[in-house]
Amino acid sequence: xxxxxxxxxxxxxxxxxxxxxxxxxxxxxxxxxxxxxxxxxxxxxxxxxxxxxxxxxxxxxxxxxxxxxxxxxxxxxxxxxxxxxxxxxxxxxxxxxxxxxxxxxxxxxxxxxxxxxxxxxxxxxxxxxxxxxxxxxxxxxxxxxxxxxxxxxxxxxxxxxxxxxxxxxxxxxxxxxxxxxxxxxxxxxxxxxxxxxxxxxxxxxxxxxxxxxxxxxxxxxxxxxxxxxxxxxxxxxxxxxxxxxxxxxxxxxxxxxxxxxxxxxxxxxxxxxxxxxxxxxxxxxxxxxxxxxxxxxxxxxxxxxxxxxxxxxxxxxxxxxxxxxxxxxxxxxxxxxxxxxxxxxxxxxxxxxxxxxxxxxxxxxxxxxxxxxxxxxxxxxxxxxxxxxxxxxxxxxxxxxxxxxxxxxxxxxxxxxxxxxxxxxxxxxxxxxxxxxxxxxxxxxxxxxxxxxxxxxxxxxxxxxxxxxxxxxxxxxx
Length: 478
What we know:
Blueprint: H1 4-19, H2 24-33, H3 39-42, H4 54-66, E1 83-88, H5 98-112, E2 116-121, E3 137-140, E4 143-146, H6 157-175, E5 179-183, H7 186-199, E6 203-207, H8 211-217, H9 227-242, E7 245-248, H10 251-259, E8 267-269, H11 288-291, E9 300-306, H12 313-326, E10 331-337, H13 341-351, E11 355-359, H14 366-370, E12 375-378, H15 384-388, H16 393-399, E13 404-407, H17 410-413, E14 422-425, H18 430-441, H19 444-461, H20 464-467, H21 469-475
Parallel strand pairs: 1-2, 1-5, 2-4, 5-6, 6-7, 7-8, 9-10, 9-12, 10-11, 12-13, 13-14
Antiparallel strand pairs: 3-4
InterPro entries: Glyco_trans_1, Glyco_trans_4-like_N, Glycosyltransferase_grp1
Domain Glycosyltransferase subfamily 4-like N-terminal: 98-273
Domain Glycosyl transferase family: 289-457
């Protein structure tokens, strides 16, 4: 429907301005930047959306917590059939991130294994991102993605959950799923739980991260005593308790969920994995190293990541500066983007470090950039979110036989065995990082041995075809 995008965006703009008049100026700049004459405005700092006032976010959380729908009867088991309806925040082909890649790869692997998996994105997506695609269904590699597209955005989160359930209810009636599978965050879980209540279906909630801890790590001014942190944690915990089963990514996350009172027997671990294609020999970069301006004979250390503070990329830059001073230079290849990118570029220039920032690259090109690397780095800080949540990107690198050096935090110990499949070092300590990088980057034989062991571990333990077995128990589908 060609009219749906302008109508929805007009409603969204009005809601944003009514919600917080201070956002009006930035909204006007973003709208002007989309015109044929707005190229310069697109680079303006004023084109960056102003975050929503945390007090209003907190008020919405309170509304969700106060709302008490009737208890949902526990189903005796899933209805017959092998159809799964999965509820997510965003998805391919519009959003390319670790979250959307996991969603897609798991859905594709499950469909290959005989489950009829359909994915449903959050209310308003992708119109809410300014993407003018109002199709209600898009198929990607055989995976059907359904979109819930109202004419206008609801005025509050309770109405958003109800409207989502109304629109998704038509899919439930059409597809007759055996189980509803919600993926972080709590709003997706709320929609699935409401549908489960209406249609008598079991609900699985997949916790891929802890929203409150991610928020805490993004600003030193944030505190665990803040209302937003406490209410988000309470809401996420409530959704875990209300679901029939909980899925998460690793043992550290399982322990955290159990510590909140969720029975251990209903928590299932389905770790991150890779396609079999990632196990193939790395492609020829085809002159990519030269085009990136990386000179021969200097080890290349890098990563693919979203550039947030908790990723610890500043520590990696400082370690590279120490190595340069020692006469053991490395080139940094930093693939990705995010709010910290500008500050990191300035830090590298100030420290005299040769760092190549590529920006985001297409998913299909990631392995060409892997082929340029000698070492893959995961310099995450010791923040709570980093201690708990296991990332996907290092597993992709390990599948290609690239040795991984990571911060020694609990979540990363689950994927890196020191001296066997990689190396661990002290987080937020540039000197420790420099020592470890020098030991590995300047030892080709050691790199090859570690990389080969890492690839074999991924082949045995971490392909999507292997890890999806964990969903069978959570779904209770034979």
